[in-house]
Specification:
The protein is mainly alpha-helical. The chain has one domain. It has 4 helices and 2 strands.
Amino acid sequence: MIFSKNGITGEDKQAHAERELLKIFQHDDLTILVISQSDIKQLAGGANFLVRLRTKYEQTRLDLPKTALEVDNGS
């Protein structure tokens, strides 16, 4: 896990650092999850940490847009 106040470059565009995380997953079967300040705020507001982690993992594993699973999980 990476904790980053502002997330990573290329977020929501599948470019730059975000694309590198996808490449690492595809090549090494290793998932790196980025926890941002907005995630921490959601957790402080009552969001379930394990659900957030699973959503982030599935987004990487299934190469889905971020909004697809976040809406399904009510995040």
